[in-house]
């Protein structure tokens, strides 16, 4: 059985936020980590001094980068025991206000990138499961997957897609030793909103003032780490009470939300625009 310090874990989106907190947590545990981000300088800043951590500049939305990322893991370590699918983008606003290229980019990263990187990694995860009795896929989803509300309609749709993908994948691989998890956070104190609107901070100092309100990313990282030692596949809300969001899709609550929210779209548009200005200004 592979011990934690022997396990090789790929974490996407490791330069900031949840991914960075997760990489730090795994490094403390002695795991061997390969992580990626689109910005090399920020990634270098994030992993500086962390033992057993390798950084790769790669965009999970790009097919060639996905293949190169996995090749780097195998070249460096010869195996893969777990994948944490964390990289993602959001956009706050109404669908009619979204540029088409933004929609395509969010779907490409949040959903297609998750499915395709998992597909590439799966043969190696199955091999690890045969050798050691387990391997893990952890998808960082969102409570938005459980109740889709504006101004996060497209983001919510991609996360609902991730949750559906995870459910199907569990039914393919559970009996073969691969555990498949989702961690579904509520609002998290990250650069998510600034990044989604094209203002990714270039350094930790630049990130000051751009963080969205929410729980510390370390709380989410704790749950991700817990998935790698869980005895079965998990779906975890962070914090736990956030699982109540599921009630938003239970009749008649869902129909009530349809009516109420659709009558308030102009107010939602203004609130979203204000939130974006506060993070990118």
TrEMBL record:
Task: Tell me which GO cellular component terms the UniProt record holds.
Answer: membrane
Pfam families in the record, alphabetically?
adh_short
Keyword Heme assigned: no
Q: Which GO terms describe its molecular function?
A: oxidoreductase activity
Q: Which PROSITE patterns match?
A: ADH_SHORT
Keyword Membrane assigned to the entry: answer is no
Q: Which CDD domains match?
A: SDR_c
According to the record, the segments passing through the membrane are none
Q: Which UniProt keywords are present, listed alphabetically?
A: Oxidoreductase
Please indicate which superkingdom the organism of origin belongs to: Bacteria
Q: Which PANTHER family match?
A: DEHYDROGENASE/REDUCTASE SDR FAMILY MEMBER 7B, DEHYDROGENASE_REDUCTASE SDR FAMILY MEMBER 7B
Task: State the similarity comment.
Answer: Belongs to the short-chain dehydrogenases/reductases (SDR) family.
From the Swiss-Prot or TrEMBL record, give the protein name.
Short-chain dehydrogenase
Instruction: Tell me what organism the protein belongs to.
Output: Blastococcus mobilis
């Amino acid at each position: 059985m592979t011990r934690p310090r022997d396990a090789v874990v790929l974490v996407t989106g490791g330069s900031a936020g949840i991914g960075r907190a997760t990489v730090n947590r795994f490094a403390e545990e002695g795991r061997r980590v390969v992580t990626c981000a689109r910005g090399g300088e920020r990634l270098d800043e994030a992993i500086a001094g962390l033992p057993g951590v390798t950084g790769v500049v790669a965009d999970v939305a790009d097919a060639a980068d996905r293949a190169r990322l996995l090749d780097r893991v195998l070249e460096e370590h010869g195996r893969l025991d777990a994948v944490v699918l964390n990289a993602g983008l959001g956009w706050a606003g109404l669908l009619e206000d979204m540029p088409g290229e933004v929609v395509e980019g969010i779907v490409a990263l949040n959903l297609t990138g998750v499915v395709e990187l998992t597909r590439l990694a799966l043969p190696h995860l199955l091999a690890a499961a045969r050798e050691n009795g387990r391997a893990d896929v952890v998808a960082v989803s969102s409570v938005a997957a459980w109740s889709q509300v504006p101004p996060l309609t497209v983001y919510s749709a991609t996360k609902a897609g991730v949750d559906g993908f995870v459910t199907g994948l569990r039914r393919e691989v559970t009996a073969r030793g691969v555990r498949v998890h989702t961690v579904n956070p509520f609002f998290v104190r990250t650069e998510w909103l600034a990044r989604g609107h094209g203002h990714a901070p270039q350094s930790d100092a630049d990130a000051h003032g751009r963080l969205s309100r929410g729980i510390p990313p370390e709380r989410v990282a704790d749950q991700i780490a817990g998935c790698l030692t869980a005895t079965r596949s998990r779906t975890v809300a962070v914090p736990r009470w956030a699982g109540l969001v599921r009630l938003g899709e239970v009749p008649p609550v869902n129909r009530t939300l349809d009516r109420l929210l659709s009558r308030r779209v102009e107010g939602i548009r203004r609130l979203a625009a204000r939130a974006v200005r506060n993070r990118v200004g």
